[in-house]
């Protein structure tokens, strides 16, 4: 480790040492080499380019896809005494010229650029001194990844225009296939690749049956996360609006976020989420990339994500501070039918549809597994792990049962109804036949004459829907067409012939105990003694007022971990305060006296 890098870490950020592979990555880039970094959300990716930007000569150029968040990123750096700025379409001409002059004069440590502005900014960049290029959210370059951005394809120009400037590409999620594509598109095939563990041990993964999903969500929030900040993901704009309204009607501070809102409304709602405590954001997946709010206590999905990568990226926005957090997903039969239909009716060619189907199959397998969810999630990214003891399946193991006979009954009903009527049917009609339900329409169509009519009364309607859902997930049956009618797949033919058994899991609805696992070794907020808790709350109130005065998120002033250590250690001098993790020189000078005054008054 270079002395300059460690000294910068201590002086600017107030940390005494690097975490995990940060040390090696920082040294690599400072030495002028390229790097590809895969590190989970909350793992400290930003330091991997921020430290070299400060140590190397010139300005670090950071390519970031989210204009709305650049302002907060720059504000956080300015709090640390770092000279940072951004260039994007929100700046007026005078401000843009000022930033350009600062860059040319060597007065900026870091300059943030949106990818679509890179090409137009090349003449400016060539006239200044560049320390490095950092490409954040690098998975956006992958056309088969979960969050492709066309503008990222143009980033290969960096290698051509600035061959001697080191490049570091960073992402929080990528399969082996995606990381190979990132390396190829960005010319980083020969660069060292730093792959951290994808495990987020403080996040409890939980998947529940979808039955009155909004009511289930409300019970979950009330029981475990009342007053906490959280994100609720929905598939459609309409669902986002309805969910936000439902939660507000129940007394929660909930806001919508989707592409149908005006840019001003999206920006206002995002700022409220980032800067206020206890806001629940109901959103499409348009919201979240680059969100740097450390105290998000839960991420909920009311609809099935399209891929494991997307699910991991979205759930990774919870618990960035290392405190316990929950990833909650409501999942049901209609999710499977809907996702299959969206792929079938989508615009992609056969290859893209095949890729999307593989992504969906992996997500369904995660939902239906009776084993450890974390173990399966990590295996998707090529990482071996033992059962975690902290997901719903580990804490409340589901029962499995031999579902071969029920599967054969359902498959036989699909075949016999098709033969009798010359058409295929959806799950509802098939279940009615199995349960022996007579309706005017079914009788008119001769459903009650089919030999399987009434042979499935060992299960109720909910039980059969669970069977259908799992058989769809296992590709024993397939849902086709606009109405999701059921057909027997090649694998289903094997089951029907008795050549392949079927094992199913029983859905569990029992509550799961709140996780107590953390990635941090320090005491959690809940473990503080009464006097310590009083000091923590006083500091949090001071932080909220200070942040509001400066129009920045509260965590930009100090994060919860630093406040917690202040409450426990209770420093009484500036020298003692300087020894607290997270108190760098700039913050000591700016806030030191105020913090000591707060602590002295409690």
TrEMBL record:
Q: Which reaction does it catalyse?
A: Couples ATP hydrolysis with the unwinding of duplex DNA by translocating in the 3'-5' direction
Q: Where on the tree of life does the source sit, at the highest rank?
A: Bacteria
All copies of domain Helicase ATP-binding, residue ranges: 26-192
Region (Disordered) residue ranges read 508-531
Q: Where is the composition biased (Low complexity)?
A: 510-524
SUPFAM superfamilies attached to this UniProt entry: HRDC-like, P-loop containing nucleoside triphosphate hydrolases
Q: Identify this protein by name.
A: DNA helicase RecQ
């Amino acid at each position: 480790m270079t002395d300059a890098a460690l000294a910068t870490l201590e002086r600017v950020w107030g940390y005494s040492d690097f975490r995990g592979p940060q040390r090696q990555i920082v040294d690599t880039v400072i030495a002028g080499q390229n790097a590809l970094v895969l590190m989970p959300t909350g793992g400290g990716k930003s330091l991997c380019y921020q430290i070299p930007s400060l140590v190397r000569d010139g300005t670090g150029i950071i390519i970031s896809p989210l204009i709305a968040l650049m302002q907060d990123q720059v504000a956080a750096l300015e709090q640390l005494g770092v000279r940072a700025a951004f260039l994007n379409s929100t700046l007026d001409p005078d401000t843009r010229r000022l930033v350009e002059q600062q860059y040319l004069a060597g007065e900026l440590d870091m300059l943030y650029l949106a990818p679509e502005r890179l090409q137009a900014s090349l003449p400016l960049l060539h006239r200044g001194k560049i320390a490095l290029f950092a490409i954040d959210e690098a998975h956006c370059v992958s056309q088969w990844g979960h969050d492709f951005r066309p503008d990222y394809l143009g980033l290969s120009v960096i290698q051509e225009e600035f061959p001697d400037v080191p490049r570091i590409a960073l992402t929080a999620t990528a399969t082996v296939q995606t990381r190979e594509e990132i390396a190829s598109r960005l010319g980083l095939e020969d660069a060292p690749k730093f792959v951290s563990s994808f495990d987020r041990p403080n996040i409890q993964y939980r998947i529940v049956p979808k039955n009155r999903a909004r009511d289930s969500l409300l019970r979950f929030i009330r029981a475990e996360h009342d007053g906490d900040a959280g994100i609720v993901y929905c598939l459609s704009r309409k669902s986002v609006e309805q969910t936000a309204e439902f939660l507000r009607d129940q007394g929660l501070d909930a806001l919508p976020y989707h592409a149908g809102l005006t840019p001003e409304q999206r920006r206002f709602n995002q700022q409220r989420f980032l800067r206020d405590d206890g806001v629940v954001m109901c959103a499409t997946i348009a919201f979240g990339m680059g969100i740097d709010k450390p105290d998000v206590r839960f991420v909920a999905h009311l609809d099935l994500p399209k891929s494991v990568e997307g699910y991991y990226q979205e759930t990774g926005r919870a618990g960035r501070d290392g405190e316990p957090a929950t990833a909650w997903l409501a999942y049901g039969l209609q999710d499977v039918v809907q996702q299959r239909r969206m792929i079938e009716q989508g615009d992609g060619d056969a290859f893209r549809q095949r890729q999307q189907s593989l992504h969906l199959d992996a997500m369904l397998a995660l939902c239906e597994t009776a084993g450890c969810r974390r173990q399966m999630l990590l295996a998707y990214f090529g990482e071996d792990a033992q059962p975690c003891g902290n997901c719903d399946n580990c804490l409340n193991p589901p029962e499995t049962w031999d579902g071969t006979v029920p599967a054969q009954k359902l498959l036989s009903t699909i075949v016999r109804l098709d033969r009798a009527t010359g058409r295929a049917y959806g799950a509802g009609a098939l279940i009615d036949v199995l349960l022996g339900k007579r309706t005017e329409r079914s009788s008119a169509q001769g459903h009650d004459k089919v030999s399987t009519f009434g042979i499935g009364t060992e299960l109720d309607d909910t039980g059969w829907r669970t069977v259908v859902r799992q058989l769809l997930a296992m590709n024993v049956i397939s849902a086709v067409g606009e109405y999701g009618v059921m057909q027997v797949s090649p694998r289903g033919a094997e089951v029907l012939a008795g050549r392949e058994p079927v094992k199913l899991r029983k859905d569990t609805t029992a509550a799961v105990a709140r996780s107590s696992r953390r990635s941090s070794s320090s005491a959690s907020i809940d473990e503080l003694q009464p006097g310590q808790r009083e000091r923590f709350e006083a500091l949090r109130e001071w932080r909220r007022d200070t942040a509001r005065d400066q129009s920045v998120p509260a965590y930009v002033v100090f994060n919860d971990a630093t406040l917690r250590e202040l409450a426990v250690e209770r420093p009484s001098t500036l020298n003692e305060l300087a020894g607290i993790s997270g108190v760098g020189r700039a913050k000591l000078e700016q806030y030191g006296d105020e913090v000591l005054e707060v602590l002295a008054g409690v």
